[in-house]
Amino acid sequence: MFFKSHIEPNGAIDEYYNTTILLDAGYNVVLPLHVVREPTRQIAFYPKVLWPVIFDLARQIERGEPSDIAASKMLDVEKAECGRLLGIYRSTALRSSPEVNAKAPVHQLFWHRLVNRFQRFYGSAELTATDGQIAAMPQLLAADWTINSVEQPRTLGQLMNEAQRVLDPEQPALTAIGHGDAHYGNVFLESQKDFLYFDPAFAGRHSPLLDVAKPLFHNVFAQWMYFPKESDAEGSMAVNVGEGHIDVEYSSSLPPLRQGILDIKRGSLIQPLAAWLEDEGGLTSGLRPLELALMCCSLLTMNLADKSRFPGSVGWFGMALAVQMGNWDVEQVLPSPDTDRAASLLSRGSN
User: Fold this and answer.
1) Which of 158, 205, 112, 168 is nearest to 285 (CA)?
2) CA-to-CA distance for 122 and 72, rounded, in angstroms?
3) How many domains does the chain have?
4) Does 63 fall in a domain?
5) Spans of the chain below 50 pLDDT
6) How would DSSP label each residue in 337-351?
7) Do the domain assignments include residue 32?
8) Does residue 18 lie within any of the structural domains?
9) N or C, fewer C-beta in 10 Å, the chain?
10) Residue 329: its pLDDT value, please?
11) H helix and E strand count, the chain
């Protein structure tokens, strides 16, 4: 066997690991043999799985290491899974009341982290700019940001306030059954053709826009989070902190595999998902829930101000990426995968 533990201090969700919900909805999922449940701490024990984890396969491909699958085949599998996800979302769609929606475990990844984790991570945080200026969190929240010569329309503080409103669980929503945290680290590749999901700690009924956020961010944009020292050595970062303004310039681009994953998610999942939600009246806030959830992925998965984990330049990159994700005009960018404008905007939000 192997086990996976989930620990969420100050967590507001009582029940995790709703595996049978995924199974009944049509997901290919590893069923746990036993789950130990305690408030804020739950451990699931699984049978040993011999299929490779897709996170490892993607890493091997982009580093040019021997891999069990070619990049083109992996992209084919990704595209097929996007189609299957759309089918599951449509077949399980319901309108949830505020009371039902509020109980969805996926909100722990976004809204609950905003209200519980942000202060713990960043209450006394400081980041040191390239010019030696020190920016404390109140300054980071209030400042106007210019990132790679693009003025960001909203400050980080404005984005935080908006996220607390838009991502608030206690509101009605068009919901479907989803894994909630289906990044590649939580998916095996079965027989080189099928996603096999595990660790459904956040599985349940929730907005499909929230369901696609973690896989989109972590599979495409988050290699700096997993390999911070390597990212620090490869990239360049210049930060200047002025009176009420922060100017960030960084150089980075998506590796071909990550760009391919992004193009597929854009054209085969998010674009048709948005069109379907609009037809069903499920875009009451546009795609802002997705954009703000992407911001939370960068800002609240790990503490960007933790110098023992992140070199200074990587912490700044994660903070800048949070601002970019929150300001990301997904409605304009995602439906246009072949335009130069889309490629330009998306390359700014990558490492």
Assistant:
1) 168
2) 41
3) 1
4) no
5) 331-351
6) TTSHHHHHHHHHT--
7) no
8) no
9) N
10) 56
11) 17, 15
